[in-house]
């Protein structure tokens, strides 16, 4: 006796994932996980500076030895960076326009300065990473690094880092960048679990704590490198550079 | 005016089936030709609008709230009754019917009340299918509780917010139909008048509250599901926007108003504390399961409750009604509180309050158990009164809560205006002189889901589709009248706020037509109301203009209607020279102060016909015939 | 007690609004916040000034009509409390109180503190239901539902649709509101049937309405008068991912 049955919900065509608000966040989360992995790996790798020249240069050599795979990983990371940034900018502008007239009084409780300023910490990180690549990876800013070789004829990454960080300005910029990164991460780890649905009521506070602890560890890990160098805990090899 | 209840013949349990068979049907292909306007989007309105749209009728639904989900059905806390007998404790359709008709003091129509009990089970099934998260047992089946002194556990509930969950269920069904384009929803729209064409209700004139513009809508039938009129008392447990306007305007157009004096006063509300107060908050009746109600024995006892020794306390419900004690029905419990306070033994700053004391229960069961049972209510009380009920007894006082009276309807829920149907609290049909706890939700949904979809088809099939346009002169005329009335309100340009008139009217009604009434008081009220109304039309202050949103004109229109409606309530209370259910006439009581019902002279429904503002309306009587139940005296001793 | 109020006044949707100053005198600490505004309004009407417009109805925290941002926080600073339940004793004598509407592009202002939350209704119309018609339903006990699922569904269904989550969110996102409905129905067998289509339909409508995106600030949970947990947002994200992967 009922009227012609229409499926109301199908009237609303599912949108392409990258067009929906949740889809965009999922893209941020998935690219974000990759960076969390990269940041952790990169830090552990570079901390080998405290184990001596041989160890670090061997590690660098091994990475270079990956050849095509290394380029694949680099391309992959670059693509993810591009996605992460593009979607961050889209989200930022969408979110900004969702409240054209701001409140006269705003009193935030749960959100943090870090969570509210991720676009800016993110952009700072981006600018720093660009410089960092030009500095150490592509060796554009300091072409003299290219000639550094150790006793085994390997590219002397160890000395390059020490030379680099012995410069107070470079170390200062680096520390600020890491601060910005940690700030960004303090909300990111929690956020990516939440976005990917890997969360429940009990884990909300735990993940937020884990997120903060992770950010602090990353900060300590990375900052220990320039600080260690400035405090002479890692020194140029005996007998100077080759 | 002729009152024909259209009650089907035959044995009580077969009446509804028989009637359903005898009613005419509209062919599925023809349903699109018929349209209905539903005014109100609470349990009755939303369920009706959704169900009719599902059948294929074209529906428009109107509510004055900003969203149909905010209708005041949402405030109901306790639960919804159904004769499922899931608890195997002896419940049945007949028992639910009997409890309801007895609770109503045998002043409701047998056939309607029986049908209500019959469809109660379908309601629970329907709501469960919609995803209403009723409370459940560990085995996955539905949980029930005993409510309002019932001897069986037949109340289904969703925490303390059953009304909300049921309304959201109906709202979801309505939303689906809106999404499908079968219902056109008009929020922030208030009905101003019903439009009659050749004596049939064929449309309404509404005011769009956001733009201030008047609009006309035509259809084949009009359904009012506009709730009760308890805001006539100003202070009540109702939402602040609840009003009598739609029902009252229909009354002025020829719909009879039935039993307006049956007004339920809920015993456990937070007392009045000051003139600024806008609302009396209800505390769930379930508190009476563990709380003991008392007042000091001494008059004007100003000691704090803790310093009043046990033997100087009067546990008056336990004293007067030893078998029901603190669980005595709502009307009895309310009246006893009033008596104690009128006797000068009330407590709290205004002396209109009684203690609801949990000290014994806390000693016996421990604070944890009490916290588990009533934690949220205790918190709410603490928040409102700044007193910790775990330490100090709560103060409670009765407050206006539910209108059993409403527009007169026949068995098909049609009023005395053909084509005008009335559902839910807005009609008078099922609760008699007093409504039992957890029955209001049942009635609203029964009317909307399971009665109107059948009976409206019968009306449509009989009169045929008329495809009326809202451009007709009848609509223009009514629009003109509404516009004129609004202009008149603006033109008063007096000094007193509309709110102050509402407060004064509320005080008159509470004093003379509240929990207990007598001839002298009612006559006094009948003098004071017209005087106040006259003052209103001379001195009320309405600001702004008709453009855009304007709350002062909204309120003025509603209060103006209450100022007229209040009179019918008093006339009705004056006419009913007996005490029954919530209507207590002081002249008619036993020596022990119990209600004295008079079945010989008053077993009728009073249906009042409008005879002009300020004139006494004409009384029509619908005799109540009882074929299946014996009229017993209620006793809760 | 006395307080100074700064209240957003705006004649209509198109007019420019601004904060205006009012003094509220001789208040009782037992008054609710809205009763305080009633008193201010009575004074204004007596002076011939149009009263402050704000949405309200039940005044007991269940209808979801009241919608004020008080000192920068939706429904004020009391935890798990709607504006109407807020009491003047939660303020100090001499306080200055800023009162603003629930602001979002998706909530255009109608007048003063009254906003149009029709966007939330349209989201519900897109998928906030189980597609069943009235009548002919199986017995309510025919499908057992575990108490845990039923309770969790009820936790989500407690949403009163006030929009405080939107007002509190730095991005004006409606995720908590939407997640509450998606989760309520996804935890129940009756709702599971259409769970995949529902989450797609409802998210698509949410985006159309111009709400912001959720960036997990958690302000929504802090502002929610019914303490709806952000775990439901995680649940909705799961539902969305499953529907995106499986339904195509």
Report on this model:
- The complex is a heterotrimer of chains A (242), B (637) and C (248).
- Chain A has a single domain, classed as Up-down Bundle (3 helical TM bundles of succinate and fumarate reductases).
- Chain A has helices at residues 8-11, 21-46, 53-64, 68-97, 113-116, 118-137, 157-165, 168-195, 203-230.
- With 242 residues, chain A is mostly helical.
- The N and C termini of chain A lie far apart (93 Å).
- Chain B is α/β, with parallel strands linked by helices and 637 residues long.
- Helix content of chain B is 37%, strand content 15%.
- Chain B has 16 helices and 21 strands.
- The longest helix of chain B is centred in the C-terminal third of the chain and has 25 residues, at 551-575.
- The model of chain B has no long low-confidence stretch (mean pLDDT 95).
- Chain C has 2 domains: 3-111, Ubiquitin-like (UB roll); 117-246, Fumarate Reductase Iron-sulfur Protein, Chain B, domain 2 (Orthogonal Bundle), CATH 1.10.1060.10.
- Chain C is built from 9 helices and 7 strands; from the N terminus they run ββαβββββαααααααα.
- Chain C has helices spanning 33-46, 118-127, 147-157, 164-168, 175-186, 189-192, 195-208, 219-223, 231-246; strands spanning 3-9, 18-24, 68-70, 73-74, 96-101, 109-111, 114-115.
- In chain C, α3 (147-157) packs antiparallel against α5 and α5 (175-186) packs across α9.
- Chain C is elongated and about 60 Å long.
- Chain C starts with a strand and ends with a helix.
- Chains B and C meet through α2, α4, α5, α10 and α11 of B and α1, α2 and α3 of C.
- On the 0 to 100 scale, the average pLDDT of chain B is 95
How much of the residues of chain B is beta strand, in percent?
15-25%
Shape of chain A: elongated
**What fraction, in percent, of the residue positions of chain B are helical?**
25-40%
**CATH C-level category of chain A:** Mainly Alpha
Structural domains of chain B: how many: 3
How many DSSP E strands of chain B? 21
Shape descriptor of chain B: globular
**Structural class designation of chain B:** alpha/beta
Name of the level-1 CATH class of the largest domain in chain B: Alpha Beta
- The CATH topology name of the largest domain in chain B reads FAD/NAD(P)-binding domain
Rg estimate of chain A, integer Å = 23 Å
Largest sheet: number of strands, sense, barrel closure of chain B: 5 strands, parallel
Instruction: Report the end-to-end length of chain A measured between terminal Cα atoms.
Output: 93 Å
Oligomerization status of the protein chains: heterotrimer
At the fold tier of CATH, the topology name of chain A is 3 helical TM bundles of succinate and fumarate reductases
Output the number of helix runs of chain B. 16
Low-confidence stretches of chain B: none
